[in-house]
Design goal:
By secondary structure, the protein is of the alpha/beta class. The chain contains six helices and eleven strands. It has one domain: Aminopeptidase (3-Layer(aba) Sandwich). The protein is globular and about 55 Å long.
Length: 263
């Protein structure tokens, strides 16, 4: 270890968390921004506890929804163990947003003037272990059954850069419609729901995890974005896990999606 680089301490958590790893469903759930944890030796990247509790550091409520869905479907889930501010697990390495120096107008002092050596250390310490675990989980299920589906759970802030986002939930997808379209159809029928199709982000622009692990392999996949004010407590997380789970169940009833198709 280069002494100039940070290091993990014995009390620091793993770079990923496995939930229900022995789940039997032909489905893997992932949560790229599940945690706001910073290693103890990195001085919170120069931020205080209030800032680390905000949406810039993690996807509030997404981990809880992921856990509930994993229980409902008896599916394994892979969740990131550290904050997106260290390195964003849903962006390509080297992307300008991969290790941000600002987020929603807040400066991230610990990410300024980062050396290539430390950027590489973060990549090897936090990013790749999480992604290798997703690869291994998909491979295990595929080896012993049908081609698995991949579903990613995110949450988004109600306001960004001064704009109030009206959507309650968004479905992000790129070329593969096998899960996205039936889920959109189901949610369109849900009373009073303001639904985003590739909103507030587009799966055609952002989606390293989906593209790398599912799109490139021809596996069915989709990403959910749920507005964070709707996930502020356990009741909200339960309600949205139910809505999301019902839409997933409707789509997953079509067993023909568990095939390899390159779009």
């Amino acid at each position: 270890m280069n002494p100039a680089l940070p290091s993990l301490h014995s009390g620091d958590p793993s770079p990923f968390k496995l939930f229900n790893p022995d789940g039997k469903a032909s489905l893997v759930l992932v949560c790229d921004h599940a945690s706001n944890t910073i290693p103890r030796g990195m001085n919170n990247l120069g931020l205080d506890g209030f800032e680390l509790a905000q949406h810039i550091a993690w996807d509030i409520g997404a981990a809880e929804v992921t856990h509930r869905l994993a229980e409902r479907f008896d599916a394994p889930a892979v969740l990131s163990g550290y904050s997106r501010l260290l390195i964003d697990c849903n962006r390509p390495p080297g992307d300008p947003g991969s290790i941000p120096t600002t987020s929603d107008g807040i400066l991230i002092p610990g990410n300024y003037n980062l050396s290539d050596a430390e950027a590489d250390w973060r990549l090897e310490t936090f990013f790749w272990p999480y992604h290798h675990t997703i690869t291994n989980m998909l491979a295990h299920l595929w080896r012993h059954g049908r081609a698995p589906a991949l579903v990613s759970i995110h949450s988004f802030t109600p306001q960004m850069n001064g704009y109030r986002r009206p959507w309650q939930v968004g479905i992000l997808w790129n070329r593969d419609p096998r899960l996205a379209l039936p889920i959109l159809d189901w949610l369109h029928e849900y009373p009073g729901l303001y639904l985003g199709d590739n909103e507030p982000y587009s799966g055609r622009d952002v989606g390293f995890t989906m593209d790398t692990h599912a799109g490139a392999a021809g596996l069915p996949h989709v990403e959910f974005e749920i507005r964070q004010d709707l996930l502020a407590d356990a009741d909200g997380c339960q309600r949205w896990a139910q809505i999301v789970g019902d839409s997933m169940e409707a789509a997953l009833q079509n067993y023909s999606i568990h095939t390899v198709v390159h779009f």
